Amino acid sequence: MRVTAWRVAMAVVVLVAAAFVTQRLDLWHTESAKRAEDVAEKAIDAEEAPFTAHVSRFREDTSMVQAGRYVLDRPLTAAERQKAASFAIDTTEMDTFLRSIGARRLGDPSKIPHNVDTPPYADASSFNLQLHSSRKSTLTITDLRAKVLRCNPSRARAVFERHPEGEAAYTGVLYDLTKEGSAAVTTQATGRETEELGQPFFRNNVINLGGGEEPANLRVESLTSGRSCAWELLATYSDETGTHTRAIRDSGKPFFTEAAPVSPDQYWVAAMTDTEDGEWADCATGKPSSDVVKYTCEGSRRQN
Questions:
Q1: Closest Cα to residue 126, out of 171, 161, 67, 94?
Q2: Contact yes or no for 273/279 (Cβ under 8 A)
Q3: Taking Cα atoms as reference points, which of 167, 182, 48, 39 lies closest to residue 114?
Q4: How far is CA 24 from CA 10, 17, 91, 117, in A?
Q5: What distances in angstroms separate CA 178 from CA 4, 159, 171, 182, 230, one per listed residue?
Q6: d(CA 269, CA 293)
Q7: What are the residue ranges in the chain where pLDDT is below 70?
Q8: Angle, CA of 231, 232 and 234, to the nearest 5°
Q9: Residue 266's closest CA among 293, 290, 302?
Q10: Do residues 270 and 243 touch, judged by C-beta distance below 8 A?
């Protein structure tokens, strides 16, 4: 009986040990499979583009009188000059006419922080930049700089300017393309001014993407003067594998900021006169019809 009991006890011990070993092996295999699965998921996640960029332009209301400048790659003909001179300055007739002959409207700089050194006679372009990442892991953009690819003198030969009554203020970032490797400078709308206004945006900010984060939206404005520039954004970001740099373009093409020429053949300005309609006057080739028109020409953004 003692032998039988001993054998039973040993059998129980063996069964318990076997069950324990089997359990440990199952756990090891499970953990190993989970680790392999995690490695595979991370590898697949890393193959995803770190983030995508979508650029959208701001639509202008063409039914409204547009302040700022238009440029045309040729001077107006004699007939066109006569027609342009007949338009009232506070109607959309000139805007409609200029668009019909192929003139392009340039962006007018928004209200620039007083502590930011910007080029004189600047022209601007702006757009909304949306950044999104479908990765499961989080990445962080720590810098976003403008890289100028090329700049050339404006090919336009005629400029048409209607002085803005005031500058609009927007929340976003600003790049000065006349400076190499321009960093993003913070701009903010009136009423939201903080000590960050005019300071490098990424000094106190980062952009987190992926890991379920919402897409980031940023208003981007660029300035140039005298030369039209093609450029791109270089994003510095960090993820689980380290720090990287990625170029951002507009659907694969460089961004483009156009400038008015420094000395155009024709420089038309909307001048206030004694008449209700005012006068469109060519400051480059025409003789001012009055002292008021002369004063307007002398005060235009680019004197010729």
A1: 171
A2: yes
A3: 167
A4: 21, 10, 84, 68
A5: 97, 21, 22, 8, 12
A6: 9
A7: 1-22, 25-47, 114-115, 164-170, 188-195, 286, 288-289, 292, 295, 299-304
A8: 140
A9: 302
A10: no
